[in-house]
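Support request, please re-run this one:
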Amino acid sequence: MPALTAVQVVRRLACDSGDDVLIQGAGGVTGGLLVVFAAATGRRVVATCSSRAAARVRHCGASDILNYRAPDWQARARARRGTASPSPSTRYGVARQRCSRLLADGGRLATITGDPPKTERDILVVDAYVAPDGPALEAAVAQLVARGLSTSIAGTHGLGDAAGVLHDVTQGHAQGASVLDPQR
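Re-run finished. Output below.
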């Protein structure tokens, strides 16, 4: 699911050549995969994550890492090219939180949280939901294997534990992918 979500979000953003992509929450499973697939399009990826996840996110293809726990990370994102406003090339973003103020006017923002921010400054907001697509998933897995990338598994749980697992994942407490096994 995370790989297919990432592929579909990157496709829906339809980034132009040479534009930066800002990915919030890149230390998570889906966020890390978003970095992989956005970087594979040749875009420069700016990623937010904790310092603990920075090396892994850089290995996924991020050009710039911003520690979201630093109090000035948003100011650093806006000023990283020496300007006081969003970089003109940072037109695309994938956010868990509202980050449209970090994007250039006329950019595109995708969210996978189901709580999209209001449109402002001609930024197109995409509320992305994953859809079944076997061939795209096969291609995504092949790309990950070709790059030698894998996802760590935080645990395997029965369906009865799904609510607790979902809570941990959405709160950022899972340290890798969580697998639900209907046979457990």
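The first strand starts at residue 20 and ends at 23. The chain has two domains: 2-127, 152-184.
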